[in-house]
Amino acid sequence: MDGHDLQPGTILAGRYRLEDLVGEGAGSRSWRAVDVMLNRSVGVEALSSSDPHSVAFLAAARQSTVVSDPRFLQVLDAVADEGGVTYVVREWTAAVPLAVLLREDALTSRRAASLCHEVADAMAHAHEIGVYHRYLNPVTILVKETDAVRISGLATEYALRSSEGGDSSGAPAGHAEQVDVTALGRVLYACLVARWPGGRAFDLAAAPTEHGRVLRPRQVRAGVSRDVDAVCDRILGNPPRHHGVPLRSARDIAAALALVGEDEAPLGDQSPSLTGAATVAALGRSFPPGATSVPAPPPSPVAVTGHARRHGAQARTLVAIGVALLVVMVVVMAAVLLFIGRDSSGGEPGDIATGTADPASAAPVRPLPLRVASDFDPEGDLSEHPEEAADAIDGDLATAWTTLQYTTDPQLGNLKNGVGLLIDFGDQKQATGVRVTFGDSPTNYEIWAAPRNTSDAPTQLTELQQVASRRASQRVSSVQFADPVATRYLLVWLTSLPEESPGYYRGVIRDIRVEGTA
Questions:
Q1: Pairing, β 205-206 against β 195-196
Q2: Residues 332-345 pLDDT 10s
Q3: pTM, two decimal places
Q4: Most buried in the list 119, 132, 360, 380, measured by CB within 10 Å?
């Protein structure tokens, strides 16, 4: 037996009964389990004892136990080899990865600062006793309904992903603290603009750059606080702008975030607040257990000296007029685009991917022969029902390709960004549109294409280019490309799956049709 042979109902150490698979990656699988002796939920992360990372994984788990900060998920048990399985048992918490929140929208400046202050403060405590995370990101940071922060994978995620010559975060070996410091800056940046500095990752778009340098959050999203923007730049800036003093430790970052104010409140920001006004006001403060009141925070210099408040009423009136005019313009433009976006086949608005097609130059199109379909699972175990892939292109709606069943979240259980089917035309074609028949809805999907003249089948998403993105609210969904896409390989990439039964999600593709020219 190894980590991939475990099944729901398996009992480890005579007490940990596995219930639900909640995560996988880097050779390990994570389960929600029940400690039958104490009648409580726990988390179990398991991998094969023959895995070359198993020894380092277990050593890292034991090392992490010296950190008692409650914001880290605590290790409760660690077993080196039980029937060929190495596993670690942790406390269980009802929380969601920060990445899930950021898929919806960025956070307000105050909420981003508060959340990242908690993470930085926790990391500072770990650093002070010589323990480092080295794989801190929006997936290993968990957020509870109360906005309390929990951090998973302290030391262990790095142990699972590291290789000789460096660490998985890209920083030179031996600079563990700076790896965590840089990660804190990136997480803060992502919280402010819902983009990831350094490239697309964690289901977040890449942060925009100018002359090779990542734009500051205030340049990307309106309403970001100057104070928080400056803290972010002091972490990631090389060097920081305006001669800012660099922040080179988690303790310095926590201290800086504890002092920030929110000098700008973005209009219409729907990001939910923290648990209450008192908690928000006490940004970055900590209180002893059992405290029944929240002390008032020191006044922010920005809040005291903001000159805009001297003409607040007049400014608000002008802003209201401007917003009203903007809304009218947006409604008119939306109506025009809605009319233009409808294709001649009666498809839903939004079928056109990008650009503007020239009807006069459009060549006659026809269904393209689909030579081969294969499963595409670069972020999982590289296999997702490959034996069913051909059923999606056989023209028979009674047959289908299905994904694995995922639990807890339609975004593939938060285990990976997506999974899909790769279509091979046999040689380069000019694709003009795709129609997909799903087994159920809603299904979020994207269309990706290999670059022109690609002859070898892609194995990673980075080898393809995204050409369309849709949310299929019905079982049949069509995308018409504004300009023909010259490619041999086309990928239908599923990013959110319909609910098959309460709490269980599965994607089903019954048919794929591609139109284009030879």
A1: parallel
A2: 565 555 544 444 33
A3: 0.53
A4: 119
